[in-house]
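Bench notes, afternoon.
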Amino acid sequence: MQHARLARLDGRLLMLGFGSIGQGVLPLLLRHLEIDPGRITILTRGRGGRAQAVAQGVAFHAETVTADNLEDLFARHLKAGDFLLNLSYGVSSLAALDWCQRHAVGYLDACIEPWAGAHETPAIPPERRSNYAYREAALALRRQTGQAPTAVINHGVNPGLVSHFVKRALRQLAQDAGLGEVEPSGQAGWASLARDLGVRAIHIAERDTQVTFRPKRPGEFVNTWSAEAFIGEACQPAELGWGTHERHFPPDGVRHATGAGAAIWLRRPGAATRVRSWTPLAGPYHGFLITHAESVSIADFLTLREGSEVVYRPTVHYAYHPCDDAVLSLHELAGRNWQPQTSNRLLMDDLVEGVDELGVLLLGHVRTAYWYGSRLSLEQARALAPCNNATTLQTAAGVLAGVVWALNHPGRGIVEPDELDHEAVLAAAEPYLGEMVGVYGDWTPLSGRGRLFPEEMDGEDPWQFVNARVT
């Protein structure tokens, strides 16, 4: 089958990390980039995936990147005009990003990661372990570097494609409200549209129903994508973009003293924080308020100010229900007082069925609720690309689309997903996202809460999306 070539890279491509997402995206890069496999190198700490890489003619080096050897290793594999695709865990994204900006090397990561162990280290204050802090550090670097090689940060599926889903959803809401084909201009235009439509909250609502014939065993953490990375973000403090409609501050909520001020954090891990949400196939569900960069960047992008006063911002947070075996893994992790299990297992070949339903749920507007996103089954994922399940392929599609955008738009410096052309990005990703669906519903965070105990509904404001709903 002939695949469209979407971008050209004349230099070399270094892929840092080769876990589930790296192994899933490599076939897509070879399909859609004009690049000889001999100019691709994989640098990773383990040997997983080596046979796949070698079979494709890609160089494979098993070395651990540390703060002491990063400069030397990067200089060995990269020069001006090359591209670093950072899909690693345990390597500082900020250190890698800074090196690339200083050496005229293009860059993309799927999330901003610290050095190994920082997510779970109690000695590091929770605020410094937040995605808010990591984002602020990247934006500070942008202010220093200015017009440097294009570096796209936080661009997988979430964070990443969900920012583009939000724009698609806002445009559909506008059209259905009789506003026609709106074309917002810049950040203020999109924020004004969200305000005018009455959007008060946005959930990144994901329900993964993939199942395996090998159930989780005691002492084992299993997941449909990196178990190690999921444990790390599960142990970070819960974070959410904090909307202007919110009237009751969470008792364990903390505001940030510096930066954009678009988000807050809670004095508990994300995996210990349950939130109610909804997807079209699953219906209402309890998810985990896992911290993700899009909760901060989308809230900031949709902020309107009059002078120094914030006059509009939606509440934004992730509401993640992973596959059932991963939920059991999280319960066991919490019971171990957040000490990781002794073994990890990636669910890939042993999966038998299921769907990853991942989208954005816009709440508070005149139509109540609108979910827009990707509905990708395991069967579809396996037919579309090798080395993938439904979860990894959604992320790989976002990585591919971000790399394509970066190569086609050089010299843009450090950029976030919200700042990219959403239709151009989605055009590259959509062939791997299964069914793209937009569905209206009448669900709100209070739907059904009073079924057994009606008194819990007394006197509640249905638009208080966080307080008393976070458990």
